[in-house]
Fold these 2 entries.
Entry 1:
Amino acid sequence: MKKILFAFFIVSVFYSCQDKTEIEKDFSCNSSSFSDLEITSDFKNLFSVELTKNWKTKLYFDDGQSSIFGADTTRQLTKSFLLDVSFVQKSINFDEIFKLNLEREKLSEQLIRIKNKNTKFNDKESYYSLSVGKKGNYPYQILDYFIKINDQNFLHVKTQIYGDAKVNDRLCTAINLIEKIKIQ
């Protein structure tokens, strides 16, 4: 009987892990569910994001990009996160020059990269970089996630997390929302 229960446990763990995306596995995220999500589309209808209805959102566009910024203003900054999704009309290659330029930019902001990886987002080539530092009086983490849409366009998703309480939980919640992005 113990062997049967153990086998059932192993099989259930195996199948639950298969549903996770690569980035969710990289950050040891568990599934999280949201209530009151609503779809927000950018001005140019190039992509949409599901965000909680009570979040404050801002839309922006110009000739080269279209963005959605969201923040939970009902919580303290150190208990939530900021999410900024931009569709950028420019080519991108995840080569060493790109990675060095991103590293240089983060160092100029006094951030240190602690994790990065080439990965996939819905079968699209992508790359993420997690950096840490201090902003004001708070420890600060920023996840930059770049998704190549095609040869002329990419998404840049930026998540900012302030404070040191439940950082991985908030990061995983952000990743869960990122996984819900729909590209038109």
Note: The chain has four helices and ten strands.
Entry 2:
Amino acid sequence: MIIFYNKKTGDILGTVDGRVHPKEVLDNMLIKPEYVKEEDVGKYVVPMKEVFEVIEEPIMEHRVVDKEKGIVKEVEVGVNKVKKVKELLPDVSFTDILLDIEKGKDYISNYKVKLDKSKKVAGLVPLK
């Protein structure tokens, strides 16, 4: 998810949903209402972390199963344990809020961006 917000007020101006975005979107996308100056728009790309799982994949070989008829079949000869990415999850302190928003249980419009002392996104806070 990419969140566009007003740097002065923390109001969320819009989002680009999704967990992976092409470079063109990351570099060029801007959501800006007419009443907000471009220099007042902040863009926060939510960092993601990979969650891995170890799965077993069969090792297959072609074997002659009937010499008289010349029948060859693919048979399982063993198992490999392979580490694969199970899912991507937001790597932020407000992951639960973002997951609820993705699932439609909550809305981004119910929040504003909380900025830390260095004016970087530190979280989402409910609107009052």
Note: The two ends are 24 Å apart (CA to CA).
